[in-house]
């Protein structure tokens, strides 16, 4: 039980892990990509805005002639300071030698600022770039009277507000994803329970069957058709077959016991009759010993037929296929069994529609067909008729054996090839059969990749049709 529980526990974990890999991980990757895209968008917009503001300031500096005319500097510096405070960024005005002429932060005036953005701006390239410390520098050239570059406007801003905004979005998104993941995981647990419950039922049934309880069946709701229902139906079909095999096995054991017990009982009675009597005449000894010998022969015949069937079932008897004229085979069988028919004044008719040659094991097929003809003669009353027909086409040979015997009930036809099965329980004893002939015939025909069909009606007769492939796939 512990192993079974751990199995289903692991199955649930596998399902959950699969959900995480297939569902959660892609969602996290998508969310991370979206957040990075949002952050990049905000940064790009900020860079564009800073460049725009820098260009506005550069234009004002040019129009005010800020770099040459000191009289207009105060008013323009107030304007730049106001703009800086309103937009919360820092403005530096540098001359062509990278010397800071004005700083809204008042800390770098008179200093030289040699940074890549300033140098690129002096080369007539407006630039806005994010720094490693999270700052953005936007640098724009300043043009003088002769359209020469006389300086640079450097605008810097902190990206912490963007980081905070993206961080807040990420927190809310993570909360949403976590809630969604919990909901889906709960659903997955419920679904895994629904999925594993039928399998647990099937395992219980299979365990019961392994203990010999072949009557067990998986109870399923078949309104919804899915793979689990198909598996349950297959399990029930397997149980049906096992139950049938077990019933056949028990019946077979019972039949074997009965068949062997009967001659043993006769032998015991006959031997005790001799042993318990004194001065038994020699004639009685001889008669009883003949009877004992007959019963021993019957037991030997039963055992030999059983061994033959076992070997046929286990494919231990190899088939020696060779080209064989089936007409000669059937004629030989009829010639050998004709005296039995003549004793009962039974007419045996043989019709060969065409010459048929097939790849068969002549000896084994002869035994199989002989069993059919022998049974037809045995179970046909006196003055009856038996007909044997041979026909074929380009693929198969057909041999039919018909009689005017007592026939077989409809509900018994499908069972006549079972071992020791008898329609009339006393018939084989009277006719001397072992009850295994038709089983041997059926197994032999199956080993030839053929088929055998039975048509019968009580008090009218029986027809058995055998089909044998002309060519075998060796």
Provide the descriptors you would attach to this structure in a database record.
alpha+beta; disordered N terminus; 10 helices; 5-stranded mixed β-sheet; 474 residues; 5-stranded antiparallel β-sheet
**N-to-C series of helices and strands:** HHEEHEEEHHHEHEEHEEHHEE
Bin the strand percentage.
15-25%
Rg for CA atoms: 51 Å
Tally of helical runs? 10
- Order of neighbouring strands in the sheet with most strands: 2-1-5-4-3
Amino- and carboxy-terminal Cα gap:
49 Å
Give the structural class: alpha+beta
Can you tell me the residue ranges where pLDDT is under 50 for at least 5 consecutive residues? 1-9, 425-431
* Mean pLDDT over the residues: 80
Reported for the largest beta sheet, the result is: 5 strands, antiparallel
Structure summarized in a few sentences:
By secondary structure, the chain is an alpha+beta fold.
Summarize the structure in words.
The structure is a single chain. The protein is an alpha+beta fold. It has ten helices and twelve strands. It has helices at residues 2-64, 73-87, 116-122, 160-210, 227-276, 282-313, 326-343, 362-378, 427-431, 437-447; strands spanning 90-95, 100-103, 127-130, 135-143, 149-158, 322-325, 347-352, 357-360, 385-392, 396-403, 451-457, 461-469. The strands form three sheets. The protein has a five-stranded antiparallel beta sheet, with helices on both faces. A five-stranded mixed beta sheet has the order 7-9-10-12-11, covered by helices on one side. A hairpin with a 5-residue loop joins strand 4 and strand 5 (149-158). It is rod-shaped. The model is unreliable at 1-9 and 425-431 (pLDDT under 50).
């Amino acid at each position: 039980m512990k192993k079974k529980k751990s199995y289903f526990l692991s199955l649930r974990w596998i399902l959950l892990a699969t959900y995480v890999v297939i569902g959660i991980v892609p969602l996290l990757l998508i969310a991370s990509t979206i957040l990075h895209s949002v952050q990049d968008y905000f940064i790009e917009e900020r860079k564009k805005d800073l460049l725009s503001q820098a260009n506005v300031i550069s234009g004002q500096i040019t129009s005010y002639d800020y770099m040459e005319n000191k009289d207009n500097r105060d008013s323009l510096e107030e304007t730049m300071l106001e703009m800086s405070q309103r937009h919360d960024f820092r403005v530096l005005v540098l001359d062509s030698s990278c010397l800071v002429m004005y700083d809204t932060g008042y800390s770098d005036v008179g200093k030289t600022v040699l940074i890549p953005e300033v140098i690129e701006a002096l080369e007539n390239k407006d630039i806005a770039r994010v720094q490693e410390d999270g700052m953005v520098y936007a640098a724009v050239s300043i043009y003088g009277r002769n359209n020469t570059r006389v300086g640079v406007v450097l605008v810097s801003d902190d990206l912490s507000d963007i980081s905070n905004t993206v961080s807040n979005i990420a927190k809310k998104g993570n909360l949403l994803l976590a809630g969604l993941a919990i909901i889906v995981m709960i659903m997955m647990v419920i679904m895994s329970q629904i999925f594993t419950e039928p399998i647990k039922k099937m395992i219980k049934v299979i365990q019961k069957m392994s203990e010999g309880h072949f009557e067990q069946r998986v109870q399923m709701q078949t309104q919804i058709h899915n793979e689990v229902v198909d598996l349950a139906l297959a399990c029930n079909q397997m149980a049906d077959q096992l139950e049938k095999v077990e019933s056949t096995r028990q019946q077979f054991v019972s039949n074997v016991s009965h068949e062997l017990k009967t001659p043993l009982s006769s032998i015991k009675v006959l031997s005790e009759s001799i042993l318990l009597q004194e001065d038994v005449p020699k004639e009685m000894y001889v008669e009883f010993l003949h009877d004992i010998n007959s019963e021993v022969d019957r037991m030997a015949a039963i055992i030999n037929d059983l061994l033959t069937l076992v070997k046929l079932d286990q494919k231990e008897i190899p088939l020696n296929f060779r080209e064989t004229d089936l007409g000669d085979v059937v004629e030989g069988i009829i010639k050998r069994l004709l005296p039995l028919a003549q004793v009962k004044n039974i007419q045996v008719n043989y019709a060969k529609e065409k010459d048929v040659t097939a790849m068969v094991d002549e000896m084994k097929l002869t035994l199989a067909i002989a069993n059919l003809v022998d049974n037809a003669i045995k179970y046909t009353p006196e003055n009856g008729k038996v007909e044997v027909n041979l026909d074929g086409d380009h693929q198969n040979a057909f041999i039919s054996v018909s009689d005017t015997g007592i026939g077989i009930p409809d509900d018994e036809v499908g069972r006549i090839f079972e071992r020791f099965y008898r329609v009339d329980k006393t018939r084989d004893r009277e006719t001397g059969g072992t009850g295994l002939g038709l089983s041997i015939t059926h197994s032999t025909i199956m080993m030839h990749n053929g088929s055998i069909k039975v048509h019968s009606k009580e008090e009218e007769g029986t027809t058995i049709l055998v089909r044998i492939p002309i060519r075998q796939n060796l």
